Amino acid sequence: MIRLEPRKDVSPAMAYLAPALAVLVTACAGTLIFAALGKDPIEAMRLFFIQPLGDWFSISEMIVKATPLILIAIGLSFGFRAGVWNIGAEGQFTLGALAGGATALALYDVAGYWVLPLMCITGALAGMAWAAIPALLRTRFNANEILVTLMLSYVAVLLLSVLIHGALKDPEGMNFPESRLFHDSATLPILFEGTRAHIGFLAALAVVGIAWFTLGRHIFGFQVKVMGQAPRAARFGGFIENRVIWFSLLLSGALAGLAGVFEAAGPVGQLVPALPVGYGFTAIIVAFLGRLQPVGIVIAGFVMALTYIGGETAQIEMNLPSAITGVFQGMFLFSLLGIDVFARYRLRWGKSSAQTAKG
Amino acid sequence: MKRMISKLAAFSVAAFVGGAALADDPMKIGFVYVGPVGDHGWTYEHEQGRLAVEKAFGDKVKTTYVENVSEGPDATRVIQQLARSGHDMIFTTSFGFMNPTLKVAKTFPKVKFEHATGFKRAANVSTYSARFYEGRTVIGLIAGKMTKSNTIGYIASFPIPEVVRGINAAYLAAKSVNPDVKIKIVWVNTWFDPGKEADAAKALIDQGADILMQHTDSPAAMQIAEERGIMAFGQASDMVKFGPNAQLTSIIDDWAPYYIARVQAAMDGTWKSQDTWDGIKQGMVAMADFSHKIPTDMQAMAQKAVDDIVAGTRHSFTGPINKQDGSPWLKAGETASDGDLAGMNFYVEGVEGALPK
Amino acid sequence: MDLLQAILQGVIVASTPLVFAALGEVVTERSGVLNLGVEGMMIMGAVAGFAITLDSGSYFAGILGAALAGALAASVFGLLTQFLMSNQVATGLALTIFGLGVAALIGQGYSGETTPALPVLPIPLLSEIPFIGPILFVHDPLVYLSVVMVVGVTLFLNRTRAGLILKAVGDNHDAAHAIGYRVVMVRMAAIAFGGACAGLGGAYLSIVQTPLWVENMTAGRGWIALAIVVFSAWRPARALMGAYLFGGVTLIQLHIQGLGIEIASQYLSMLPYLVTILVLTVISYDKTRAKLNAPACLGRSFYASS
User: Per-residue pLDDT for B19 more than 70?
Assistant: First the structure.
C-alpha cells in the first residue's frame, strides 16, 4: 500500500516545482468549471497565470500588491513560529495607516525630506501600540490573543471610519468621507516611472534580509523556533515566554503598521475608509505558504499577488464574475498546499519498518 | 450544410459591407462596480444601464464590467487595466473611485471617463449623479400621511451628504403633511449586510416605527416589514417582490437614459466633460407603482408632487428651514442651492439625534 | 410584547447562526484540528439552503442540503489536512476564499429571488409562561435545534466514550494512536460535523433571518464564530453564551441608536467587539478555574509513525 514518509529535509526541488505543478492542477480542475461557464479554459488559464507575467504594468502592480503582504507576513512568521497567533494584523495595518496618514495631514503644508520617515515611524509605533493590547492581555490576564487581535481589527476599521468622517475629513472635499490627498513630501517616491511600485518594496526586501539573518544566526531566532516547536522545553531552557510574546506581537504590529503607512502614502495617496482590504488576513496565507521562512515569504507574496492580478485580468478580458477569482485562488492554494506535501514527505510502497517490526 | 454556407455568405457580405461602411471597431465601454451585480440595489441598477446600452447600440459597442472593486488601492489598477485594454469610455460607479479615476484619466487623455456621485472633473472626466432626494420627498409625503404611530424608521448606511440629503428631504416632506411625525435613524455603517439591515429594521419596529425607509442596498428591511405587517419603501430597485404587501412604492435609479445619451455623444463626437445632476424630470429617478394600499386621494397627492417636481414648481428644500441647532438656513420661499445640497452635513430642525461625525 | 422582550427575542434570532458555526468549530478544534474556513463553509450552507429550498419548496430539504454542503466543503479541507498533512491554517483560509467564490458562482441565478421565511413554531404551554415564554419558546425550529445540539454536544463530549476518544485525539494524538484509536477517522468526522454545523448557521441566514441570496451575505460571521470558540474555552455551553453576548450587544447598539442617543454610530458599532474582549479577559484571569487551554494538539498535523 502507499504511504507517506517524512523526509529529513525539505526537498528544494519539490519546493520550487510546487507552484508550477499547482498551476497545472488548477488548470485541469478549472477546465471543468470554465466549460460549464461556457468559456475557453486555456485562454482563462493564460490570462490568469501567464499574462500578468508578460507585461510590465502587471508586474509593477504585482510589486505593489506583494509589498504589504511580504512586510506583514515576515512579522507574522516570527509569532507563528513561537505559537503566538496574531490574526489581527489587519487592525495593526489600519492603525499604522491612520497614524502615518494623520501625520501627513497634520503637516500638509510643510515640505521636507523628514516628513516621510516621520510618518513611517508614527505608523510603525501605532501598529505596535495596537498589538501591545493583545500582548498585555495575554501576558497579564491569559486572554487568548486570537480573539483579542481579531476583535481589535474590526475596532480599528471602525476607528478609521470615525476619524475620516470627522477630524481627518478633507475640509475642501464637499463633506465626502475622504481625507485630503497627501502632499508631495508625504508621498512615497516611485521606483519605476509610470508605475505605482514605490520604495516600500525596497524596505520590504530590507526587512526580509534582516529577518533572514536573525532567524538563521541570532540566538533570538533560535529561541523563537524552539518555543513554537516545544513549549515545555522552551520553558526549561529559560526562554521567557512572556518576552517572546511581547516581542512577536510588537514586531508584527510594527511591520503591519509600516505596511499600512506605505499603502496610504503610496498606491492610495490619502486616507479612505476602504483602505484596509484584507492584507492582514492574506498575509497569514503568505506566511504559511512561505513555510515561515523569509525567502519563501517573498516568493509566496508574489505568487498571491499574481493570482489577484490575474483574476482581474481574466474578469476584464473574458467578462467573468468576480467570484471566479476566489474560486481560482482557492483551487490554486489547495493544489499548492496539497502538492507541497511531497516536498516534506516522500511516497513509499509497502509497509514501514515499524509496521514490519510489529509483524 | 446549405444553411451553413448561406450563413457564411451572408456573414462575409455583411462584413465586407460593414467593413467598408464603418471603418471603426465597436466602441469598448467599461463599467467599474463597487458591489456585486446581484445586489438588487445600487450596482444592479448600473448593470441594467449597461445592458440597456448594449441593447440600444448592438454591434456598435462592446461592454465590459468588473464588479466588487473596492474603493481602496485596487481601484486605480482596475480602471487603468480597462483603459490600457482599449476601452474608449469608462463608467466608475461609486464616489470612492473619484481620485483613482482622475489619476488614470491623466495618463489616458483620449479615454472618456464618467464618474458617478463625484465632484472633481477634468477635460476627459465627467461627473453625474441623481437627485434621489426628489424621490425621498415623494415617499416622505406618503409616509407622513400613512403612518399611524407617527414614527418613521430610517435605516441609513454612512453619514455622507447623499444619505443626509435623503433623510432631510424625507423628513421635511413628512412633516409638511403631518406636524407630529418623528424620524428614528439607525446607522448600520455598511451599504450591504442583509442580516444587519434586518436587525436594524427590527429594532426600529420594536421602538415604534410603523413605516420604514432605507438607504442601504439589500431588500432585507423590506422582508422584515412584510413579516411584521408594516409598511416600507424600497430603495434603488423595485422591491415589491420582497414585500408584496409591505411596499408602498420604491425609489428606482434608472441610469439607462443617461448612459445611452453619453455613449451616443461619444460616438457623435459631441462628448464634453460636464456635471449632470438629473432627477425625476429627466428620468434618472423614478417611482415604482404606488401600492393599492395607499388611498386614492393620497396617491393623487403623491402624484401631484411628482408632477410638480417635474414641472419645476416644487423643490424638495424650500424655506423657511432651519438647521437642527436652530440656526436659519433657508428663508421663506428660498430653495437650496446645488452647492449646499452637494456637501450637506447637517440635519434640519426637528430631526433628533446627532449626525455621526 | 414589550421592548425588552422584543430585544431579547431578537438577540436569540440574531445569534443563532453564530451558535451553530461556533458549536461545530468547537467539536472540530477539540479533535485537534484548527479549521479557519468557517466563513467559507457558512456561505456554502447559505447558498445551498436557499437554492434547494427555493427549487424544491421544502425547508427540510434545504436545511439538509445546507448541512451537506457545509460538510462537503469541510471534507475538502479534511482530505488535504489529514491525508496530505497540509498546513491547517493556510488550508482553512484557502477554504474561506474558495467557499466564498464557489457560493457566489452557484448563487448567480438566485439573486432577486425570495421564499417565505421558515415559520415560527411556538412551543405549546411553555410559550405561555409570562415574560420568558415569548422570548424563549416562540421561535423557528432551527433555534430549538441549535439549543438541543448544544446540549447534545456537551453530553457527547463529557459522557460518551466517543466523546472521550475525540478529546483524547485532540490532546495527544500520538498517545491516542498508540492506544489504537483511528486518529484520522475521528478527525475527519469532527471536521465534517463542524462543516455541517457551519452550513446550518449559513442556512439560518438565508432561510430564516433574511430569505434571499446575495454573495458574501455572511458578512464575516464565520470569523466571529472562530473568536467565540476561543471565548468559550472550547466548551459548547460557553459558546452559546458567547454567541448570545455578541449578538446581544450588536442588537442593543442598534436600539441605542434608535433611541436618539448622541454617540457616533461607529463607536456604538465597536461595542460588541470591545465587550467580548473585556469579558474574555475577566474570565481568563481567574486562573483557579478549570483548564482554559486549547487542546494540546490543536493545529498540529498528525503523522502516524508506526
Answer: no
Cβ neighbours of C274 in A, within 8 Å? 151, 155
Q: C111, B39: Cβ pair inside 8 Å?
A: yes
With an 8 Å Cβ cutoff, is C104 touching chain A? yes
Strand, coil or helix: A2: strand
**Predicted pLDDT at A308:** 92
Cβ–Cβ below 8 Å for C276 and A151 = yes
Average pLDDT of chain A? 87
**Residue among C206, C163, C234, C170 at smallest CA distance from C45:** C206
Which of C281, C282, C302 would best serve as a mutation to test chain A binding (most A beta carbons within 10 A)?
Answer: C281
ipTM of the shown complex: 0.90
Q: Is the pLDDT of residue C223 over 50?
A: yes
Window 135-154 of C, Cβ < 8 Å to B = none
Shortest distance between the Cα of C194 and any Cα of chain B, in A, equals 22
Does C212 reach chain B within 8 Å, measured CB to CB?
yes
pLDDT average, residue stretch B97-102: 95
The minimum CA-CA distance between A308 and chain C, rounded to whole Å, is 12
Contact A330 C101 (CB under 8 A): yes
Which pLDDT tens digit goes with each residue over C143-180?
A: 999 999 999 999 999 999 999 999 999 999 989 999 99
More confident call, A342 vs B356: A342
The widest CA-to-CA distance across chain C, in whole angstroms, is 66
Per-residue model confidence (pLDDT) at position B3:
55
Asked if A72 reaches chain C (Cβ–Cβ under 8 Å), the answer is no
**d(CA A74, nearest CA chain C) in Å:** 15
Which helix (H) or strand (E) segment is A345 a member of? strand A345-349
CB-nearest partner of A315 from B66, B107, B189: B66
- Over chain C, what is the mean pLDDT? 91
Cα separation, A317 vs A325, whole angstroms:
13
Banded pLDDT at A83 (limits 50, 70, 90):
confident
Looking at residue B16, its pLDDT comes to 46
Kindly list the residues from chain B whose CB atom is less than 8 angstroms away from the CB atom of residue C3. 206-207
Cβ-Cβ contacts under 8 Å, B77 against chain A: 61, 64, 196, 309, 312
Could you give phi then psi for residue C59, rounded to 5 degrees? -65, -40
User: What pLDDT score was predicted for residue B20?
Assistant: 40
> Among A107-116, B31-40, C18-27, C115-124, which range has the highest average pLDDT?
C18-27
Find chain B residues with C-beta within 8 A of C103's C-beta.
none
B–C: how many Cβ contacts below 8 A? 115
* Facing residue for B193 by CB, picked from C219, C257, C263: C219
Q: What is the pLDDT of residue A231?
A: 56
